[in-house]
Each structure stands twice: as structure tokens, then as C-alpha cells.
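Page 47, continued from p. 46.
Same chain as before, 450 aa.
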Amino acid sequence: MKRVISIALILCLFPVALFAGGAQERVDAPTVVDVWTRNRHDKDLMVNQVEQFNQTIGKEKGIEINYQIYGDDFIDIYTIAFQSGSGPDIMNLDESIAEGVNKGVIQPLTSFDTEDWVGAFPFNVDINNVTSYGGEVYSIPQFAFTMRMVYNKDLFAACGLDPEQPPRTYEDVVAYARTITEASNGKKFGVALPFKWGEGFWAWAGTYTIGGGFGRKEFDYRNGKFDFSTLKPYTAMVKQLKDENSLFPGAEGLDNDTARAQFAEGNVGMMFAVSWDVAVFNDQFPVKIDMGITEVPVPEATGFKYKSELVSEGEWWLGSGIESAKEDAVWEVYKWLNSDEIVAMKYEAAKNIPVNPTIAAEATAPDVMGFAEFSDVTNNTVYPVVPSVSVEGDTYDIIFYNAVAGQYSIDEAVEKANAAYNAALQRAVADNEIDLADFQIPDYSPALAQ
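Result:
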């Protein structure tokens, strides 16, 4: 899928400064720190916190945060911005750390951290190929994320399905989606899949969800190579949903916000969701239905044998090309964004699950619809890291979408992805960018579900 960016949106990346009457900029004007995010689920909280920062700490230290929130095309937006020399100072990263480093859009925390601030965290922040790359730390893992399937109990009941019997397998999802779509006479649909989200969709609704059936993702830890065969049953389910017209219409152009809004309105039976969606369905798009939450389905052939993945990633990243005159202000804001105060606030508001165990123990646990189901990690575990590589040609999300669209078979998609990613892995090993010993686990044994 080609990403499309509107001309108007691109023009918005290049703000024009207007000076009334040709007046010179005031000497005491604050240093503006540009922070770009794609997090809409905590918009209400963070916009308020940024305003408070600007009026208190910022005013005292001469700093002003310019906080911008973007949608699912965020990766395109910041890529274009950095290419034109107008990228943000601090940002979320919507691609692998290897891709971010090789594209030159992020930089390590090393040169900014003169007081070993990174080393003071009470948990490991140096996660190779996740928050660190080439021996340098680029980001702090603030939160952990779980994946679930949410479903519309009201719609289940209206279509003759038992609302207390959610789908357990991919085969269930297909059958339930068919029933919902047919019974609703084209007014409501079985599943919403936001294909426009691109790699985000194939990761958060795909590779991050398949562990329950296979005990791993797209990397064979024992043999130290990529093996995308684990994505084959999931892709077959997606293709069948599409071929049977059980998907919410226009899936190719459907972004995650629109998909979640349609689910909240009651027009969709099932959706793959992430723990941050608790805030979305309570605040951004309040659900108008009785929402059920269940573990992500697995292939019938495997069953739910293993614990699903608990994902932890870097939250905030320093953009490349920060002006030397802004470095102190940028670092002040970066530390504030990663402070215990902000992390605890997001946890208490049910926006995120903190990685820092001290915060979870000391903060007030949120009493918010859906949070208990997403934060119960009894059957979740942190999986070993998958190597982050830069492939030549199509990435796996495009490869598998093309299979869903019928351009080639799913088996061919597996072969194409394996060839592309293993070639990239071999190049990275040959160039000493990756030590395969950091990822290969000859005696790997996945955690069994309880």
C-alpha cells in the first residue's frame, strides 16, 4: 500500500512566522520545544499537562512546549519533516529503532545525559534493538501493552450469538463475522480491520497477537532466523473475512480512529485492540454498547497453548538535528515527559500500564471500564527481542496485505518475507550491526498459558 499524504497536510509542516509591524523577536522569548506524538488516547490528559508545564516550570525556565498530535500517517509526516530539516525535537517513533537510526530521524540520549539520568532508573532501560541500538540507549520504556479482542455483546445477542461466548479461534472469528454481517443486512459488519494503519495494524493486530498459538512471533529463536510461517493462519483469517465481505467497508482506507469510532457506535461486531484503547473507548470514542473483552483468538489447530506477548517499547525519542542552543531545553522537556509524575498520572487515568513496578505499587489503581481485563497479565509474558533490520523492498506488512488482496498466495508471502528479512539480517551481521548471539536462543522454550 502506498502511503498518501495530502498537500494540505504537508504544507502544515512548514509554519510561517508572522511578525506584527516588522517587530523584532523579544530577547526573553521562550525556547520552543517541538513535541510530536501519535498518541490520541491520552490527548485530554497530556494537553492539560503541557499547558500546566508551560505556565509553571516552562515559564520559570524559559521553555515552551509545542505539542502536536497526529494520526495513523504519522510516520510519513515526520519522515517528510526530517527530510526538509523541520523535524520535531522529541517524538514517538512509528518504525523499528534500526529503521529510525538508519533514516537519521533519531539520536541517542548519550550526548544529552551528562548526569547518568538514564542509569538511575530502577529497571532495565537498555533493551537491545528495542530502546538501544549499537550499544547506545535511544529511549526509555515507560509502558507495557497487552492485546485483546473487544466485541459487541449487544450485536452478538441481536444476531443470535451468545454474548458470553466470545470467539476463541480464528475460525470462530470468521463464523461469527459472517453471522453478524448476514443477519444485519449490510448495516453492521463482523470485524473492523484498519488496513490504512499499515505496519501498525500488522504488528499490533498481527505479529504481537500470534504468540498464544505459537509461542513466538516472526523470528525462530532456536535457529536464529526469520520465519513468518507463524503469520500464515492469521493472514488466512484476514483474507477470508475480506473475501466474504465480513469486514467493515473500505478497509483499505480505514484508519484506526475511524475503525474504533465505528465499533464504539455499535456498527462492528469485533476488533483487535491494545491496552491503550481502554482510554479511547472511555474518553475519545465512548462506547455506546455493552463491550466484551477476551484474549486474542488463536488458530484452532494450535489452541491457546502459550502466554501471549506483553509488549514494552520506547515511548519518547530525541529527533535528529536539534539545534545546540535548544539542547538544554529539549533535555529538560524529555526528562519531564519520562518523569514518575507523568507516568503515574497516565496509569491512574487508565491510559497505560507502567513498566516501573514502583509506580504501579504506589499509585492508585484505576477503576475504569475495561482496564482490569487489559491489565491482567496472568497469561502474558515479555517475549525475547526480534532483530530490528532494514529490508530492501517491501516490508512484511505490504507483502502480507498483497496476499490478502490476491496478488499472490499466502505461502508466497511467507517465502517473500522470509527471503527479505533473512537477507537483511545477514547484511546486518556481516556489517557488525547485529550480533546474532544476542537473539538466538538454542534452548528456547515459550511460557505455557495457565
